[in-house]
């Protein structure tokens, strides 16, 4: 269990959703407390959680820019390709605009231009979620995905759209309702990220085991081949030594035979002289 929690905690998206859930909880607490001092404390905590999330998604626009390009180029021409590309492109524009407003969020600047830019960025986010709702509806009518996945996506979009909608004044809801909707969407998204992270960790472990097994088999094969080469070299060496020793023995035998022949011949010659 600790390993699974560690896998989840090491994922940037999981950390962002966890902080988002905490932000939703303190937002609910700030909206339900009757104490002005407590409300100020909860709102301060909410601002810190929101700021920490901004750091994690500072360059998120790059991911959605690449996703929009991949969706447009890899998918066949269809209405779904248009909706999916528009969704990713709008999210890329939103995160790109929000990136420049980080100094206002940090309290370094109080630029009215950046405040207006943040407002327009939230409007773009609203359009992105609206496009996502259209995409989910299209998938439901086309039956491109499972009903459970479509239901989760629909709940996520319906909850998330309240955040920018209330911030820009297009959806009149209070902060407690927004906090509840944000907590629900954060829990659902967190469950999806949990499943993805654990699957990736399991696949990584399987690949690691397969790699280690291949390495062991390769090492064993290398050792076997080296032993065979050593045995072959040893046998060749012994064969050469044996051939060399046999040659010396054969040579000695020939010398002895010649000597014996010469001796016999010498005896015969001496007998003739005699």
From TrEMBL:
Transmembrane regions: 89-110
Keywords: Membrane, Peroxisome, Peroxisome biogenesis, Transmembrane, Transmembrane helix
Comp. bias regions, Acidic residues: 226-235
Subcellular location: Peroxisome membrane
Comp. bias intervals (Basic and acidic residues): 216-225
Biological process terms in GO annotation: peroxisome fission
Record flagged with keyword Transmembrane helix: yes
Renumbered residue ranges of the record's region Disordered: 200-274
Pfam families, A to Z: PEX11
Record-level GO cellular component terms: peroxisomal membrane
The organism's place on the tree of life at top rank: Eukaryota
Annotated PANTHER family: MICROBODY (PEROXISOME) PROLIFERATION PROTEIN PEROXIN 11B (EUROFUNG) (PTHR12652:SF23), PEROXISOMAL BIOGENESIS FACTOR 11 (PTHR12652)
Protein name: Peroxisomal biogenesis factor 11
